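Quick check before the chapter quiz. The format below is the same one you will see on the exam, so make sure you can read both the input and the output lines.
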Amino acid sequence: MASKTIKRISSGGEFEKKVGYCRAVIANGFVFVAGTCAQGDDIPEDVVGQCESALAAIGKALAEAGASFADVVRVNYYLPDMREFDLCWPLLRETFGDNPPAATVIECNLITPQDRIEIEVTAALAG
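Here is the expected output.
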């Protein structure tokens, strides 16, 4: 049986320790980035600002894993109010450009009532 190599990437976010997860895991040629909400001390109140913040955190994790948004093959979006999702579309088109991933959007509660969007991605690493 071949040995597995798994690498975990932590962002040091407050919920990683509280909940028991890490920002990303590299395994079997893929990077699995955990659901990510806006990060930092000054979190925007609007969905577009939060989307931008979440994408920045995801981009940092992807870069640390040796990947980029061009390598993302799957994305899941979670929003407490689906009516806000279309406000994010221009930013998402800009982020993924000519490499759009398969996508799912789900309306649900998020970890705090202030969160407007959570984004989860899976990227393929170059083999």
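If your answer matched, good. The domain at 6-124 is CATH 3.30.1330.40 (60s Ribosomal Protein L30; Chain: A;).
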